[in-house]
Amino acid sequence: MDFKKLLTRSLSGIIYVAIIVGCIFGGYIGLSILGILLGILATMEFTKICNAVHNINFSLLYLDVLGVVVLSVSFNPVMPVFPIILWGCIMIVRFILELYVKNENPVRSLAHSMLTQIYIGVPLACMSATAFIMVPKVILIVFLMLWISDTGAYLVGSMIGKHRLFERISPKKSWEGFFGGLLFNLIAATLFCYCSHSFMGLHSNIFQWLGLAIIVTVFGTWGDLIESMFKRHFNIKDSGNIIPGHGGILDRIDSFLLAMPAVTVYFAFLYLFA
Asked: For 166, which DSSP code?
C-alpha cells in the first residue's frame, strides 16, 4: 500500500471527524454551522455531478444552496425567524425564476432542484429537529453508529464476504458485511446504553438503543446504495475530491442522508408512544 496515500487518507479522515464532533459539541450554534457547511458543499457537489454535461446556472444554484441551508437550520432555537417560511419563499422564487433564465429543459432543472431539497435539505432539517427535540449530542451518536457500521461491514465483508448484497448497484457489498456492521452497532448500542445518562442525559432503555442501532444500520446501508445508484447513473467513481483519499462530501454523508430522517421518525414514534 502507498504510505503517502494512506497518510493523506488518515489525516483528512481525522480532520473530517474532528470538524463534525467539534460542531456537535458546540451546541445549537455549532450544529447550525455543521448543517450550513454540509448543505453548501453537498448541494454544490450534487449539482455538479447532475449537470456534468450541462452548463450550471449559478443564479439557480445559489437559490438551491440557500434553500438547503435554510432547511438545515429550520428547527434550531438560535434562529430569530421562522426559516421554514423563508424556505417557502425561496422555492416560489425558484419556480418563477425558471421563466426568465431561458433554460433548454426547465422541467429537468426544477426536478433537480426539488430532488436537491429532498435528498439533502430534508435530512439536514431532520438533524436540526432531532437535536431540538432531544439534545445536539444525539446527532453524534448517529454519526458514530454510521461509522461503526461502515467499519464493521468493511472488516467482516473483506474477510468472509461472499454473498452479494446488491450487485447491480454496488458489487463489493456483501450480506456478511451488512450483518457484520449490524453486529458491531448492536454491541456499540449496548455500550452507549450504559453511558448515555452521563453523556447525554438520556433515559432510553436497552431495547430502544438496539432499535436505534438497527434503524441506523439498515437505512444507512440503503443511503449508501442510493448514492451508488446516482454515481452509477452518471458513470462516476466519486462525487468529488474535497476530502483527499475519501472522495466528495456526498461520499461521506450518503448513509447519513437516509438514516437521519429514519432516526427522526423513530424518535418521534418513541416520544408519541412511550
From this structure: E
**Has residue 195 got a pLDDT over 80?**
no
Q: Can you tell me the distance from the alpha carbon of 128 to that of 120, in angstroms, rounded to the nearest whole number? A: 13
Domain range for 166 is 136-274
CA 201 to mean position of chain CA atoms: 25
Closest CA to 64 of 32, 33, 98: 98
CA distance 155 to 138: 26
DSSP 109: H
How many residues make up the chain in this entry? 274
- What is the count of structural domains for the chain? 2
pTM recorded for the entire structure:
0.90
Angle CA(114)–CA(115)–CA(121) in degrees, nearest 5? 85
Give the list of residues 6+ apart from residue 134 with CB closer than 8 angstroms, or none: 200, 202, 267
C-alpha cell at 85: 417560511
Let me know whether 95 and 144 are in one domain. Answer: no
Provide the grid cell at 214.
438497527
**Residue 199 and residue 103 share a domain:** no
Q: State the residue for C-alpha cell 458514530.
A: 144
For residues 238 and 228, is the Cβ–Cβ distance under 8 A? Answer: no
The more confident residue out of 15 and 80 is 15
pLDDT digits (tens, 9 = 90+) for 49-97: 887 556 778 888 999 999 999 999 888 776 656 788 889 999 999 999 9
Backbone phi, psi, residue 204, to 5°: -75, 150
- Measure Cα distances from 16 to 2, 11, 140, 146 in Å: 21, 9, 13, 14
pLDDT digits (tens, 9 = 90+) for 216-248: 999 999 999 999 899 888 888 777 777 776 778
